[in-house]
Each structure stands twice: as C-alpha cells, then as structure tokens.
Design a protein that fits this description.
Blueprint lengths: L2 E2 L2 H6 L8 H12 L9 H12 L7 E5 L6 E7 L6 H15 L8 E7 L5 H6 L1 H24 L4 E9 L5 E10 L1 E3 L6 E3 L7 H21 L10 H12 L4 E4 L7 H9 L11 E5 L2 E12 L5 E9 H9 L10 E5 L18 H8 L24 E8 L6 E7 L4 E8 L1
Helix pairs in contact: 2-3, 6-7, 9-11
Length: 417
C-alpha cells in the first residue's frame, strides 16, 4: 500500500541538479523492453513501474488545507518498493532506529561472507534455494563457533547482497555478530576477550556447511543444474574448493554508534544509490563506485566512474531486483526472538538517525528534519484532509477522491479532464 511522502521529498526529486534513476528509465525503458537483452521477469516489470511512478500523480496526491488561512499542502505517495532507491533508504533509517532498542549491550563485529563467482550460474538458476542456504549457513557458522568455543549464544543480523560496486553479480552477505552473548548456564551477558580468530578454519567450515546443503539439494533432485551425472557434479565441487571463499571480519565495534552505522550502510537499501549517479547523457548513464583493486596513499579504495549504455545498464541493474516475498534481512541466535532478551542486557541510548547521517553525508538532505506538512506553518494548527487526486495512466484525465470517514476508504467524487 502506498504511503504519503513529505512535500520536501516530492520537491527533491524534481530538482534538476539531482539525478533520478526514474528519469533514465523514463527515457529508455519503453525502447529497451521492446527488445530486451535478457528475459524480464514480472517482479522486474513491477519494480520498474513502481520506481517510475513513485512520488508522482500516478500513485495519488493527498491534499490538506489549513482551516484558518486555507493554505493547501500536497502530499505525494511513495511506492514502498524495495528496488526504489528513495523508499528503500527511508525504510532503512526507520528500521535502524527501531532496531537500536533491541540490540545487546556488547561489542559487535561486521562480517562479510562471499561465495566464489563460479557458483553464480547455479545461484541464478536456483535463486531462492541457494540464497536461503547462503544466509542460513553463514549464520550457522558463527552460532556453532561461538557455542563450541565459548559456550555462548550470540545475536546475529544477516543482510543479503547480490551486487558489487559496479553492479555485477556478486553474491555475499553482511552480518552484524555480537562479540559475545548470553551464557545458558548462568544466564549472564558475557563479552568475548581478545580478537583472535582462525580465519582459515572458519572459511573451511563455511565451505563445508554450504557444500553439505548444496549436495543435499542435488541428491533430492531439487537442484536445477546441467551436470551430466554425479561424477561431473563432484568434479565441480573439487574445482570450487580451490577458489576464494572470502570471509572478512572487521574489528569489534562499540554499541550503538558504529554498529548502527554499518546496519544503515549494508541493510535494505537499493543496489544503486542516486547520489552516486554523476551523469545521464544521451543513451548512457554514469555512476561512481569504489575500486577495491586500486587504493590511494591513505589505503582506501579509489573512486572511479563507470559509464554504461542503457542496454547494458538495465539488465545489470535488474538482476538485483529482490525476489518476491524473499527476506533480505534475517535474524538468528538471540536476535531471532529479541523479545526474550532481558531488558537489562539491551543498550538504551543515542540518536541513530544522526548516526546514519554521519555514515552517509551525501544523503543528509533525505534525513533532515522538516516541518510537519500537516501543521500550518503560519497558523500552527493541524490541517484537515480535503481530497486525493490520481492521474489516469496514458491519459490527461485526473480522478478526484474524498475519504469517507465512517468506511475509512476513498470514494471517487468526480473526474476532471
């Protein structure tokens, strides 16, 4: 269901100095879909349509008026699609702000687990099944490790990403793992001491867990593949064992500042943030990305620009449209049922919206506190709802609705040509 967007948001996407992804789709999508480079799924069609209609008259505009001075404020509706850069970013901020009150008062570590690219073909043919396995086994790895080594039950937040910096297919998960947990015997909260982790052991263990569930899927006959027989499947496993199974752990982070910063950066956001778009000339689009293969004198990856024709850009971007009803963010361990965590073990402090803003100063305008559009800026009284307008598709006709207060629904009252 659509939700109203603040007028400042509606004005922001009309700013000519700000590149909107919807603008590029408006220019070239109708041409591209006549002869697409790859099959376009129903979910991809739905995502593109939502992106193009977001905060436009197509989704409706609520009109509110001040009962004293008559000032009218239009409030545009958002699409709420996970593929939409603006909606997903705002959803991330709200989600992080809500999450801050249910995190353990412990240091946490940011973990990245990446699958070898040789598995990409299988993943694309078995999207949901193999992505489920990736999220499940990566969290199981740390649950098992912390239990057997420290006899603790941790809290884990897992976020799936299928894209890299250049938006190629790059399947990996970002995890926030509590560096400690609750001792089941004493029921006390305990933080881990020391930073030592046997990376090779963890990488090998993750590979074993993933291979075990992949083989179970193959043996059950549910795996979509092109292997001629079991022998060719076994040879494939032997090849990928020699590839890079990347597992990266960053240093423990304090609660909640650094943790929420990473949650905001690696959570529900769309794969391409609009502030990274640097140009739209003709049939091409340019965007910034971090080049991790080349680093500057400060040790940080260099920032590069990539220019793509729309026939290359659209399929590269659309392969990351979330699957229908697929949960990109999942909770494991203690965070699987956060209501059971004793209140005295939770962190209660800080303004996470400010923390997210620190992590993404480029998008600060999207997080600024704005005046309540439903309160008159002159009279300081609450505005009242008047009507909603919706522009009909492929027509200049506008339908005007009014809300029936008793039925809590909107009824058409007239059509304006």
């Amino acid at each position: 269901m659509c939700t109203p967007a603040l007028p400042s948001m509606a004005a922001a996407w009309k700013d000519e100095k700000h590149f909107r992804l919807a603008t590029f789709f408006d220019r070239w999508w109708d041409s591209y879909k006549l002869s697409p480079a790859h099959f376009i799924s129903p979910e991809q069609y739905k995502a593109v349509n939502a992106l193009r209609c977001c905060r436009t008259e197509a989704y409706g505009v609520d009109h509110y008026a001040c009962p004293d001075c008559g000032e009218i404020t239009p409030v545009y509706h958002s699409c709420k699609n996970r593929f939409c850069p603006t909606c997903s970013w705002q959803d991330t901020v709200k989600w992080a702000d809500k999450l801050k009150d249910s995190m353990l008062s412990l240091p946490h570590r940011h973990v990245v687990v990446t699958l070898p690219h040789q598995l990409n073909g299988l993943i694309k043919r078995n999207n949901k099944e193999l992505l489920d396995i990736l999220m499940r086994t990566s969290s199981q790895l740390f649950k098992d490790w912390m239990w057997h080594k420290h006899h603790l039950k941790p809290g884990i937040i897992t976020v799936l990403h299928t894209y890299g910096e250049t938006k190629d297919y790059h399947c990996h998960v970002h995890m926030i793992v509590s560096w400690g947990g609750i001792d089941p015997d004493t029921h006390r909260l305990k933080a881990l001491k020391g930073l030592y982790v046997d990376y090779n052991f963890l990488k090998d263990k993750f590979r074993e867990l993933f291979e075990k569930q992949l083989t179970a899927l193959y043996d059950s006959g549910l795996l979509q593949h092109s292997f001629a027989d079991l022998q060719s499947y076994t040879r494939f496993l032997q090849r990928i064992r020699k590839k890079r199974w990347i597992l990266h752990l960053e240093l423990p982070m304090d609660i909640p500042t650094q943790v929420i910063r990473y949650i905001g950066r690696y959570s529900k956001r769309a794969c391409l943030s609009e502030y990274k778009i640097t140009g739209m000339e003709g049939e091409s689009i340019r965007f910034r990305y971090k080049d991790y293969k080349h680093k500057g004198l400060d040790g940080k990856p260099l920032e590069q620009e990539l220019e793509l024709h729309y026939r290359d850009f659209f399929p590269r971007l659309l392969q990351h449209v979330p699957l229908k009803n697929f949960r990109l963010v999942r909770y494991y361990g203690l965070y699987a049922n956060r209501s059971t965590i004793p209140q005295e073990y939770l962190y209660r402090e800080g303004s996470e919206a400010e923390i997210i803003k620190e992590a993404h100063p480029e998008q600060e305008s999207e997080l600024q506190e704005v005046e309540n559009p439903l309160v008159c800026s002159h009279c300081h009284v609450n505005k009242v709802y008047l009507y909603t307008t919706v522009k009909k598709r492929n027509s200049s006709q506008v339908i005007v609705y009014k809300r029936a207060l008793l039925q809590k629904m909107k009824l058409p009252i007239e059509q304006v040509a």
